[in-house]
Amino acid sequence: MTGAGPPTATGGPDGAWFRQVLGHFATGVTVVTAMDDTGPLGVAVSSFTSVSLDPPLVAICVNRASATWPRIRATGRFTVNILSADQEAVSRRFASTGGNRFDGVGWQPSPAGSPVLDGALAWIDATVEAEHDGGDHLLVVGLVSALDVTREGAPLVFYRGGYGRFES
Questions:
Q1: Rounded Cα gap, residues 44 and 29, in angstroms
Q2: How far apart are CA 127 and CA 80, in angstroms?
Q3: Does residue 77 belong to any structural domain of this protein?
Q4: Is residue 16, in this structure, part of any structural domain at all?
Q5: pLDDT in tens, 73-119
Q6: What secondary structure letter does DSSP report for 44?
Q7: pTM, whole model, 2 decimals?
Q8: 83, 95, 94, 76: which is closest to 142 by C-alpha?
Q9: Alpha helices for 110-151 (secondary structure H)
Q10: Of 4, 9, 53, 138, which sits 20 to 30 A from 103 (CA to CA)?
């Protein structure tokens, strides 16, 4: 075992080693969407989790450098789309910068008016309850107002820097 990996000036592991080790934790892949006066907004987010059942809370982690998140935050609400195994191209599109991410991507409005992407396994509508500092990311807590399963299927999974599928 190599232990802590190469140290940084602060004594902790460097970013590459941190990413490599944490990459061994498989995550689901989501796209967070909203609607503002310019149209639909969306960004890929792999850091998503449930927080509480009572009240129903979820959390996402969004990169501080995101140009999309401030626009979503300004709406006061967001929708988490849980992607299916056949939506890798959708994830890549929403992880990219520039261009219209919704070109060629079908969607329907959620009860809150945010895009629910065609083909997503499930969606969760939430209002922004809190935003916390998380280093180079923001930890956003949302109060769930509505949610549903849109279809059954295998989820899109991110593991060790690449996409994969869950087989049951």
A1: 7
A2: 11
A3: yes
A4: no
A5: 999 999 999 999 999 999 999 999 888 899 999 999 999 999 999 99
A6: E
A7: 0.88
A8: 76
A9: none
A10: 138
